[in-house]
Amino acid sequence: MEPTRILTAEHRVIETVIACLERMIEETRKTGRLDKIAAEQAIDFIRNFADGCHHAKEEDRLFPAMEAKGVPRQGGPIGVMLIEHEYGRAFVKGMVEHVEKAAAGNSQAISEFARHALGYAELLKQHIHKEDNILFPMADRIMSSDDESTLMTQFAEAEARIGENTHARLLAIAESLADRYGVAKDHIEHLRLHG
Ligand SMILES: [Fe+2]
Ligand SMILES: [Fe+2]
Protein backbone atom coordinates (compact mmCIF):
# COMPACT_ATOMS: atom_id res chain seq x y z
CA MET A 1 0.00 0.00 0.00
CA GLU A 2 1.02 3.59 -0.64
CA PRO A 3 1.76 4.72 2.98
CA THR A 4 4.17 1.82 3.60
CA ARG A 5 5.73 2.39 0.17
CA ILE A 6 6.51 5.98 1.24
CA LEU A 7 7.92 4.88 4.61
CA THR A 8 10.04 2.26 2.84
CA ALA A 9 11.40 4.89 0.42
CA GLU A 10 12.26 7.05 3.46
CA HIS A 11 14.09 4.07 4.97
CA ARG A 12 16.37 3.94 1.93
CA VAL A 13 17.32 7.61 2.48
CA ILE A 14 17.88 7.05 6.22
CA GLU A 15 20.15 4.11 5.32
CA THR A 16 22.07 6.38 2.95
CA VAL A 17 22.80 8.79 5.82
CA ILE A 18 23.65 5.88 8.15
CA ALA A 19 26.23 4.68 5.60
CA CYS A 20 27.69 8.24 5.63
CA LEU A 21 27.79 8.17 9.43
CA GLU A 22 29.70 4.87 9.41
CA ARG A 23 32.23 6.27 6.92
CA MET A 24 32.55 9.42 9.04
CA ILE A 25 33.54 7.32 12.06
CA GLU A 26 35.91 5.20 9.95
CA GLU A 27 37.61 8.40 8.73
CA THR A 28 37.75 9.76 12.29
CA ARG A 29 39.42 6.57 13.52
CA LYS A 30 42.06 6.85 10.80
CA THR A 31 42.75 10.57 11.11
CA GLY A 32 41.85 11.31 14.75
CA ARG A 33 39.66 14.16 13.50
CA LEU A 34 35.87 14.49 13.36
CA ASP A 35 34.42 16.66 10.58
CA LYS A 36 32.24 19.03 12.64
CA ILE A 37 30.08 20.23 9.76
CA ALA A 38 29.35 16.72 8.53
CA ALA A 39 28.68 15.44 12.07
CA GLU A 40 26.24 18.28 12.75
CA GLN A 41 24.54 17.70 9.41
CA ALA A 42 24.09 14.02 10.25
CA ILE A 43 22.58 14.93 13.64
CA ASP A 44 20.29 17.49 12.00
CA PHE A 45 19.08 14.91 9.45
CA ILE A 46 18.56 12.18 12.04
CA ARG A 47 16.69 14.43 14.45
CA ASN A 48 14.50 16.19 11.96
CA PHE A 49 14.02 13.71 9.14
CA ALA A 50 14.49 10.22 10.63
CA ASP A 51 12.88 11.11 13.96
CA GLY A 52 10.89 14.31 13.37
CA CYS A 53 9.33 13.28 10.07
CA HIS A 54 9.63 9.53 9.59
CA HIS A 55 9.22 8.20 13.14
CA ALA A 56 6.44 10.72 13.73
CA LYS A 57 4.51 9.26 10.78
CA GLU A 58 4.96 5.80 12.22
CA GLU A 59 4.21 6.65 15.86
CA ASP A 60 1.36 9.12 15.35
CA ARG A 61 -0.26 7.67 12.22
CA LEU A 62 0.62 4.15 11.07
CA PHE A 63 0.99 2.42 14.45
CA PRO A 64 -2.29 3.79 15.89
CA ALA A 65 -4.05 2.76 12.66
CA MET A 66 -2.66 -0.76 13.09
CA GLU A 67 -3.72 -0.81 16.74
CA ALA A 68 -7.22 0.15 15.68
CA LYS A 69 -7.16 -2.98 13.50
CA GLY A 70 -6.34 -5.14 16.52
CA VAL A 71 -2.52 -5.27 16.56
CA PRO A 72 -1.59 -4.90 20.24
CA ARG A 73 0.84 -2.17 21.26
CA GLN A 74 2.33 -3.97 24.24
CA GLY A 75 4.13 -7.25 23.77
CA GLY A 76 3.95 -7.12 19.99
CA PRO A 77 5.95 -5.67 17.09
CA ILE A 78 4.58 -2.12 17.57
CA GLY A 79 5.78 -2.04 21.19
CA VAL A 80 9.24 -3.20 20.07
CA MET A 81 9.39 -0.53 17.35
CA LEU A 82 8.43 2.21 19.85
CA ILE A 83 11.12 1.09 22.30
CA GLU A 84 13.70 1.08 19.50
CA HIS A 85 12.72 4.65 18.52
CA GLU A 86 13.46 5.61 22.15
CA TYR A 87 16.84 3.81 22.09
CA GLY A 88 17.62 5.70 18.88
CA ARG A 89 16.85 9.02 20.61
CA ALA A 90 19.22 8.10 23.45
CA PHE A 91 22.04 7.40 20.96
CA VAL A 92 21.42 10.73 19.22
CA LYS A 93 21.48 12.52 22.58
CA GLY A 94 24.90 10.95 23.19
CA MET A 95 26.12 12.18 19.79
CA VAL A 96 24.87 15.71 20.52
CA GLU A 97 26.55 15.74 23.94
CA HIS A 98 29.97 14.84 22.54
CA VAL A 99 30.05 16.41 19.06
CA GLU A 100 31.56 19.74 20.10
CA LYS A 101 34.48 18.35 22.10
CA ALA A 102 35.02 15.52 19.62
CA ALA A 103 35.30 18.03 16.76
CA ALA A 104 37.80 20.00 18.87
CA GLY A 105 39.99 16.88 19.00
CA ASN A 106 39.26 15.53 22.51
CA SER A 107 40.01 11.83 22.15
CA GLN A 108 37.61 10.68 24.86
CA ALA A 109 34.79 12.69 23.25
CA ILE A 110 35.70 11.22 19.86
CA SER A 111 35.34 7.68 21.16
CA GLU A 112 32.06 8.54 22.92
CA PHE A 113 30.71 10.18 19.76
CA ALA A 114 31.78 7.14 17.73
CA ARG A 115 30.21 4.72 20.20
CA HIS A 116 26.85 6.50 20.06
CA ALA A 117 26.97 7.00 16.28
CA LEU A 118 27.78 3.35 15.57
CA GLY A 119 25.21 2.23 18.15
CA TYR A 120 22.60 4.31 16.35
CA ALA A 121 23.67 2.94 12.95
CA GLU A 122 23.44 -0.68 14.10
CA LEU A 123 20.12 -0.17 15.87
CA LEU A 124 18.50 1.61 12.93
CA LYS A 125 19.67 -0.92 10.33
CA GLN A 126 18.06 -3.75 12.29
CA HIS A 127 15.00 -1.65 13.09
CA ILE A 128 14.44 -0.79 9.44
CA HIS A 129 14.89 -4.43 8.45
CA LYS A 130 12.14 -5.46 10.90
CA GLU A 131 9.75 -2.77 9.68
CA ASP A 132 10.36 -3.54 6.00
CA ASN A 133 10.03 -7.29 6.41
CA ILE A 134 7.59 -7.83 9.29
CA LEU A 135 5.64 -4.74 10.32
CA PHE A 136 4.89 -3.13 6.96
CA PRO A 137 3.81 -6.40 5.25
CA MET A 138 1.49 -6.88 8.28
CA ALA A 139 0.09 -3.36 7.78
CA ASP A 140 -0.40 -4.06 4.06
CA ARG A 141 -2.44 -7.15 4.93
CA ILE A 142 -4.78 -5.58 7.48
CA MET A 143 -5.46 -2.11 6.05
CA SER A 144 -8.47 -1.55 3.78
CA SER A 145 -8.33 0.93 0.92
CA ASP A 146 -10.29 3.38 3.11
CA ASP A 147 -7.65 3.07 5.85
CA GLU A 148 -5.02 3.61 3.20
CA SER A 149 -6.52 6.87 1.98
CA THR A 150 -7.01 8.12 5.56
CA LEU A 151 -3.33 7.42 6.23
CA MET A 152 -2.32 9.22 3.05
CA THR A 153 -4.28 12.30 4.15
CA GLN A 154 -2.62 12.14 7.57
CA PHE A 155 0.84 11.76 6.02
CA ALA A 156 0.18 14.82 3.86
CA GLU A 157 -0.84 16.75 7.02
CA ALA A 158 2.33 15.62 8.79
CA GLU A 159 4.41 16.71 5.78
CA ALA A 160 2.62 20.08 5.68
CA ARG A 161 3.43 20.62 9.35
CA ILE A 162 7.11 19.98 8.69
CA GLY A 163 6.98 22.22 5.64
CA GLU A 164 8.17 21.73 2.09
CA ASN A 165 11.28 23.85 2.64
CA THR A 166 12.41 21.84 5.66
CA HIS A 167 11.85 18.60 3.79
CA ALA A 168 13.90 19.86 0.82
CA ARG A 169 16.61 21.18 3.18
CA LEU A 170 16.92 17.79 4.89
CA LEU A 171 17.15 15.91 1.59
CA ALA A 172 19.83 18.39 0.48
CA ILE A 173 21.76 17.56 3.67
CA ALA A 174 21.49 13.84 2.87
CA GLU A 175 22.80 14.60 -0.62
CA SER A 176 25.74 16.66 0.60
CA LEU A 177 26.71 13.93 3.10
CA ALA A 178 26.46 11.30 0.34
CA ASP A 179 28.77 13.45 -1.83
CA ARG A 180 31.18 13.98 1.04
CA TYR A 181 31.46 10.24 1.84
CA GLY A 182 31.06 8.76 -1.64
CA VAL A 183 27.73 7.03 -0.95
CA ALA A 184 25.21 6.47 -3.78
CA LYS A 185 22.47 9.14 -3.97
CA ASP A 186 19.83 7.30 -6.05
CA HIS A 187 17.45 6.75 -3.13
CA ILE A 188 17.47 10.45 -2.24
CA GLU A 189 16.53 11.39 -5.80
CA HIS A 190 13.89 8.65 -5.87
CA LEU A 191 12.22 10.00 -2.71
CA ARG A 192 12.37 13.55 -4.04
CA LEU A 193 10.55 12.45 -7.21
CA HIS A 194 8.18 9.80 -5.86
CA GLY A 195 8.00 10.32 -2.07
FE1 LIG B 1 10.43 2.92 13.07
FE1 LIG C 1 10.74 3.32 9.92
Keywords, please?
195 residues, globular, binds fe (ii) ion
Tell me what the structure shows:
88% of the residues lie in helices and 0% in strands. With 195 residues, the protein is mainly α. Helix 2 runs antiparallel to helix 3. The longest helix has 36 residues. The radius of gyration is 17 Å and the shape is globular. It starts with a helix and ends with a helix. The mean pLDDT is 96. The chain binds fe (ii) ion (FE2) (2 copies). The site of one fe (ii) ion has 6 residues, from helix 1, helix 2 and helix 4. One fe (ii) ion binds next to helix 1, helix 2 and helix 4.
Quick overview of this protein structure:
By secondary structure, this protein is mostly helical. Helices cover 88% and strands 0% of the residues. It contains seven helices and no strands.
Radius of gyration: 17 Å
The major β-sheet equals: none
- By secondary-structure content and strand pairing, the structural class works out as mainly alpha
What order do the helices and strands follow? HHHHHHH
What ligands does this structure carry? fe (ii) ion
Task: Please tell me the overall pLDDT.
Answer: 96
Unreliable runs: none
Strand content: under 5%
Number of E-state strands = 0
Large-scale geometry = globular
Helical content, roughly? over 70%
Instruction: Note the gap between the termini.
Output: 13 Å
